[in-house]
Design brief:
There is one protein chain. The chain is 67% helix and 1% strand. β1 (135-136) and β2 (144-145) form a beta hairpin. The protein has helices at 2-28, 54-65, 75-99, 107-128, 151-169, 175-194, 199-216, 225-242, 249-252, 254-272, 284-290, 295-315, and strands at 135-136, 144-145. The protein has a two-stranded antiparallel ribbon with strand order 1-2. The model has no long low-confidence stretch (mean pLDDT 91). It is mainly alpha-helical. It contains twelve helices and two strands.
Amino acid sequence: MTDSLMALIIAFALSAALGPVMIAGLKKNKARQTVRDDGPGAHLKKSGTPTMGGILIITATIAGAIYFAPQYPKIIPILVMMLSFGLVGFWDDFIKIKKLRSLGLRAWQKLVAQLIITAVFIYYLSAVMDISLAQKIPFAEGKYLDMGPFTIPILLFVALGTVNGANLTDGLDGLHSSVTALIAVTFSVMSLGIGAGISPLAVAMAGALLGFLVYNAYPARIFMGDTGSLALGAFVFASAYLTQTALFIPIIALVYVAEAASVLLQVGYFKISGGKRIFKMSPLHHHFELCGFFETKVVSAFVIITAILCAIALLGVW
């Protein structure tokens, strides 16, 4: 508990203190957000807001957790995953900024990079760290699901779904930061309860996100960009694998799942129906905005739902 508290304080203090420096640096280097023309009209005023704030989140998280790495070796592969996916996001953000457009890497380029990184991660867990890929079944004490030959494909699917769901969640001021902070706290409690050994990293992430929220809450002065959103998604699925709780992701990260599902449903129905739509706009948070809910109301609702589901998930661990 002492280690976790120290990690939390260090990450929060660094993130909050360096926020103004990061914002000024991003402005100086013209790292500004380009808002999609086909998005909600109210979002057009956000164009020009500094982006790539994920650099701050990653830096503060590492600073808060790295001291404890020798005592908690399981946090190393999670940090590596965060950095790896963060670099993919950085590459994507850099293209957007350089070419002054809302689209960066092509979808297939992101997918290939994510598949390679995740495959290496899963191999490292099973072959080098000798961690079982069997996953704990929620609300079934002591029982784990071993998917046999389907384990690797399913875990790859879960990983990519989590990362891209996280990426889609980053569309409202403070939404992704606050939701993932709750998820990080949940992983910390899970880790302490089952002795998984990742609690310092999980609370460091929560602290870094809380510090970032000082500047990312409505009205946002900085966005995390894909640099942050992909890194956060990687943190979530990597933490789930290290704690063998990947089956809990649809519970604690239901917001991620709903955001991704809304896009898939919207695109699929649009194609098979000849142009009709299920939602006013996807991802899901935009649908609620266009239904008349103010941005902060949508964020509050999603955060409350996540808090309730995280509490339920904790009951299902033991």
